[in-house]
Amino acid sequence: MSLFITSLASGSNGNCYYIGNNTEAILVDAGITCKEIETRIKRLSLSIEKIKAIFISHEHADHIRGVPVLAKKYNLPVYITTQTLKNGRLHIDKKLARSFNAFDPISIGDLDITAFPKYHDAADPYSFTIRFKDLKVGVFTDIGQPCQHLINHFSQCHAAFLESNYDDDMLDAGSYPYFLKTRIRGGKGHLSNKQALELFTSHRPDFMSHLFLSHISKNNNCPNLVEQLFNQHAGNTKIIIASRFQETAVYKLSNPAVNISTQLPVTMAIFPVSASQLSFSFDDEMKSA
Ligand SMILES: [Zn+2]
Ligand SMILES: [Zn+2]
């Protein structure tokens, strides 16, 4: 029994995380276009037909941009709270919009998805965990500060998508206006490399096999820096950088009893980056660094 996980996109220009077993899958957020999701799913040899639902963490554009078209085209239920739906001004068919409550698991086939609240400057923001048999995966991005819920869930995960948004010195020295720097590090913005590393080194369980460093800022961070920083403390955990420009490979999580050294990527994705993938606007970063 295995789970297959990948980051289709991660960063202030769009977030979309895929978690699935052999028969069904869910997306957490759909912040890139439906067309781009289809392209990336196909490139990874995954099947879009396996996707059975979309779970929405909060209403910032980099998490919802592709939702209306994707949901309509594939008739997918969208699990989204009333506040997020209202504040995101999303037009989703009433039949497809479903609400959820924190701490109440929702079953999509054999996947159980549970939301818990997080600190972020959105109307009603949540993190998610996805459980399949004995395996647990967490999607933890856009977090102003680690809370006890995050610590509890992180310490139970076999794999996690964890925000490592900014380097303190780069944010300090960077060109962002003071109000934006304050917003990012003010407790309801984003997790720094230091905060993410502290969570990882203090609360990682022995069985965590994969850590995807996610939502890495373009202007206030550097993927190589993040990779080096975490690799120094990685132990048996594979460190993966979730790119803002392209999908990661698909990683397979097997039963925890299986030796993690056998858990190699199913595919290794090395793709040229097109000009459109590099497009980026300061406005996006303003909304969600
Ligand atoms: Zn975001
Ligand atoms: Zn956000």
Tell me about this structure.
With 289 residues, the chain is of the alpha/beta class. The chain has one domain (3-270): Ribonuclease Z/Hydroxyacylglutathione hydrolase-like (Metallo-beta-lactamase, Chain A, 4-Layer Sandwich), CATH 3.60.15. It is built from eleven helices and 14 strands. The chain has a seven-stranded mixed β-sheet with strand order 6-5-4-3-2-1-14, with helices on one face. Strand 8 (111-117) and strand 9 (126-132) form a beta hairpin. The radius of gyration is 17 Å and the shape is globular. Mean pLDDT is 90; it is low at 258-289. One zinc ion binds at residues 58, 60, 120, 122, 142, 288. One zinc ion (ZN) binds at residues 58, 60, 120, 122, 142, 288.
- Along the chain, the helix and strand elements come as EEEHEHHEHEEEEEHEHHHEHEEHH
Major β-sheet, in short? Answer: 7 strands, mixed
> Based on DSSP secondary structure assignment, what is the total number of beta strands?
14
Tell me the number of structural domains: 1
- Coarse morphology: globular
Secondary structure category: alpha/beta
CATH superfamily, called what? Ribonuclease Z/Hydroxyacylglutathione hydrolase-like
Strand order of the largest sheet: 6-5-4-3-2-1-14
Hey, roughly how much beta strand do the residues contain? Answer: 15-25%
The chain-level mean pLDDT equals 90
> In the CATH scheme, what's the topology name?
Metallo-beta-lactamase, Chain A
Oligomer designation: single chain
Low-confidence spans: 258-289
With helices defined by DSSP (H or I, 4 residues minimum), what is the helix count? 11
